[in-house]
Sequence to fold (1099 residues):
Amino acid sequence: MNIVSNLISSYNYYIIIFLMISGLFIVVARGNMMKKLVGLALFQTSVYILYISPGKILNGTAPILRDDFTIYSSPFPHVLILTAIVVGIATLSLGLALVIRINEEFGTIEEDKLFEEEL
Amino acid sequence: MTEHLPAIQVMIPIVGSLLIMLIRNNTLNWLIGVLSCLSVVFCSITLYSKVAISGAISYAMGGWEPPVGIEYRIDELNALFIVMISLASCIIILYAKNSLNNEIRANKISVFYSMYLLCLAGLIGILSTGDAFNAFVFLEISSLATYIMISIGQDKRALVAAYQYLIMGTIGATLYVIGVGLIFVITGSLNLVDIASRINDIELMRPLYASLAFITVGIALKIALFPLHAWLPNAYAYSPSVGTAFLASTATKVAIYLLLKYLYLVFGYNIIYSNPLFMIVIIALSLAAMFGASIIAIFQSNIKKLFAYSSVAQIGYITLGLGIANYNGLIGSTVHIINHSIIKAAIFLAIGCVVYKTKETSIKKLAGLGRTMPLIATCLTISSISLIGVPGTVGFISKWYLVLGAIEQGWWLVVISLAISSLLALIYVGRVIELIWFHEPEKNIIVIKEKLPKEMVIITIILTLATIYFGIDIRLTADLAKVAVENVLLAGDIL
Amino acid sequence: MSELILILPIILPLITALIIKFLWKFERIRYLILIAGPILNIYYISKILTQFNAIPIKLDLITILSGLNISLGIEPISMIFLLMVNCLWLIATIYSVGYMLSNNEKRLDNFFMFFSISIACANGAALADNLLTLFIFYELLTLSTYPLVTHKGDELSKKSGRTYLLILLGTSLCFFLPAISYVYFLSGSLDFIENGLLMTTMGVNSISNLQLSILLVLFIFGISKAAIMPFHSWLPAAMVAPTPVSALLHAVAVVKVGVFSIIKVIVYTFGIDLLFDLTIVDLLIILCGFTIIASSIIAIKQDNLKKLLAYSTISQLSYVIIAILILTPSAIIAATLHLIAHAISKITLFFAAGAIYTSTGYTKISEMDGIGSRLKIVMIGFSIGALSLIGMPILGGFISKWYIVESALDANRWFIILVIVISTLLNIGYFIPIIYKVFFVKNTSKKALKKLPITINLAIFSCCILIILLFLFPNFFIEVIKNEF
Fold:
């Protein structure tokens, strides 16, 4: 019973952990450079949720300063995650650009084949 | 005006970097780069002297007061590192012009300068910010710039190296952000001073440990602490020589500073020592780096890779000092950050001269360099000897403090390991030196450029002389490090 | 005269080296410079010697940290060492001019340059006033002799050069340097102090026997230039170098710097009283005894004359160390005497070996039947050197052996006496057959001999004179050291 209630009350963390691990797993286990980047994006996304979900307060509203509302979610994580998303996009697009260039130069984006060629 | 210096010294390179992207004239862009670096040097030295007189400076970015706003905090320790980084970047960019013209395509040179400055801005940002999330942003700015700098290298393998570094670097940065997120959830603050003051009241230890672990591993990826170093050798080997010198002497060092700051100023002794296993792991990894990477270095066939692995080993020395964690150990770490960046800048710039002339980085092709390029060969020899830690060179000073620190702790095993790893350094350096001086030059080397540009030779010589000078006169290195350790790291009260 | 005169014995050889390198193309003056360097040096050293009698002098060059500085100073043992190295440098220079020219060696300018630099380093080690300075010059000496070992440039010499560097630098980095930093940690200083640094700063009771034993072992093994087994194999390896190098550096300068450093460390860093009761000293004496006997036995088996001499050097070096480890003032004097006696005798032997090679091309003992009749001066010199090492009266080696035995008797060290007796027999076992062979076995080959340059004969002759002089006037040295104790 305890476990179930724990599972339900902090389900967001379990989702985060699932995303995190699957993202990392893809990065480690896949040899395709494109898929690796997808995994990386997934990994980063989990962090966005990690930041935003604790900021949500039950029954709270959007952080608008008005007398009608007393309980509202913290706006701080949103600001941070906006920045993080920008950084993530920059990284992803640079990564994709690199993959395109690698494909042009080597004719493949599979790591196994690349290393064969390199060594 | 001077009270805005902490912000200005980050802004100058950013503005310079943007300007360079707009102007597409290589010589002009080089000038902009040199000017920006020079002014950063000027700012940082002014700032250091201010800090040295009046103590730590807190600067509220945009007028938003901390802990809500972003705080820039300059103390003796990071001011010292900012001076070091800016000086290194200034010297290296002075050297860069001809080397880059020769090594990379003309239309990429402006991009390189731009990224160089952007990376510098990111590094100075990491050093000066007092905000955990802001540090992440700067970390990513510098890393993105670094990926591009590496990928500009002429060898096509540079692309793969950049991609690998991108994956590893992003994982590292993301792990770091996870750690910061956990701290944020626990303490409700992102300001490092604020966190440090709240962290000791926290009773829920598990998330705190988790965040310590995430942050340490995340930064360790950036540091290239053994065994998380896999990205470093390729990145160093295939980026342009100037890029290698810049990365080797600045980027990893800044990450080490960040780790130092988190361990000693944010989490503090109580937490990092509440479980002795943590420090044991750091020490064990450092020793593994000193041995493992040195042994790998012995078997390298590419000179840049050899010294890249040697960097991994030397990083082990620095983190070892963190693990020893007493007065002498911390001085050893701090001073080795400075000394190692001088040594590695000298070595990679000397290699840059060789590459300029022959485009060869294979060790075999260096045979007989003592006859074909005696000056550069001498520089390479002297600076590699200081890697070993021979007295009279900078390497000795840092090792001396580390050994003293280890003896003070009574860790004889560490003392012996330090000695044996010097021996390993002797082997890989000795191999290069023997080849340079006592072998006949290879016959079939195509010499691309006959004459080395004067400024490249002069700067290499200056850096080489610095490795000797600072091994004898330590007023500017170890003495300042001592002040920093006394006033910042061991100030009793945290931060 | 100011203290600055102390720097001259280091600077002068360096200047000589530079001048040689840059003025090598002027054939007329190059040999003049070569000879002028050592002579000037001896002149200034004798000046220091006379000045030293009045006041002890010390010169701080650079201070890195408090207690960690580079400074020069002088005391009796280093005085004697300095005088010995530079006199033999002069003789060896005269010899090597003849040797190198008759053997058509290449790159003479490099050879003489590094030769002078090595001497500068040896002088620096002699003048060192603290452990750090000693260590720096010790390392520089290794580095500057490395090009001489690999002078031939073939695969064998490169391989030997690697062994040479690896053992010498390796042991000094692994043992010597940690030992130095431990001394610094314990006492906050590295200076050589009369009665011993640790003795004065720590006293007998505040430092445990275990700590002392570890330190002593680190020092003895760290200073592997003294070639105690198991770190001796660099010395036979270094024999690939041209003979003048083997003669001056690997019989005198390099190995003697090792032994000298051990003397310095034991006398001025530990203080002989501090070590007196340690069990580890007994163990080290046994190790030295083993080294003496084992290397003598290896020497008997050698057919290559230079290798034989190298193993003989290893055993003789352990003589000196075993004498030091008796730890009495008279034993230190005996050790210093033996250091000089061995240096002069061994350099004579090497000169003779080089002369044989120059004249006949022989390197193996089995080829040398009957050459004594044709190389009279050389082989008489060889015999004198050999007999001196065996310990024949009227030769220098007798005096020093006598003193060692005497101080061992005083200290009731019967083991040492036993070792000396056995090793003397072994000495006879490997030297006498050679002497017999060259003089009394009939020569079968009719190979024509090259005429020896006058300089080679002159050098051997003057060495023989020195050996006899040492027997006649040992008091010259003994008096100097006695003042100290």
